[in-house]
Design a protein that fits this description.
The protein has three helices and three strands; from the N terminus they run βαααββ. By secondary structure, the chain is α+β, with helices and mostly antiparallel strands. It has one domain: Ribosomal protein L22/L17 (Ribosomal Protein L22, Chain A), CATH 3.90.470.10. The protein has a three-stranded antiparallel β-sheet with strand order 1-3-2. It is elongated.
Length: 114
């Protein structure tokens, strides 16, 4: 049984979020939650909410045992950017790309079927 949770248009760059996600990939769900709780990065708080949602989906939809869940798949993809301009000298402007992310977390208990 596999369940997932998706957060779209998160206001964090994918590069920064992937640093956090790489630490929890393949770990048990409880270990991943504890790792993210004590990680001092902005992305950790965002990914923790998505992971908690995926765990809650598994518990509510399939009555899965939370202690047996494992993080099987975690993806961070680029979302559309906010494009802004910053004023520079001599009437020029420089483009600023405010990057966004789509975060997907999938948990599984290793058993087949729904």
């Amino acid at each position: 049984m596999q369940t997932k949770a998706v957060l779209r248009y998160a206001r964090i760059s994918p590069q920064k979020c992937r640093l956090v996600v790489d630490t929890i990939r393949g770990k048990s769900a409880t270990l991943a939650v504890n790792t993210l709780k004590f990680m001092p990065k902005k992305g950790a708080k965002i990914v923790l909410k998505v992971l908690d949602s995926a765990i809650a989906n598994a518990y509510n939809n399939f009555n899965a045992d939370v202690d047996e869940l494992k993080v099987t798949r975690v993806e961070v993809d680029a979302a559309p950017m906010f494009k802004r301009f910053h004023a520079r000298a001599k009437g020029r402007g420089v483009r600023i790309a405010k990057r966004n992310s789509h975060i997907l977390v999938q948990v599984s208990d290793g058993k087949e079927g729904n």
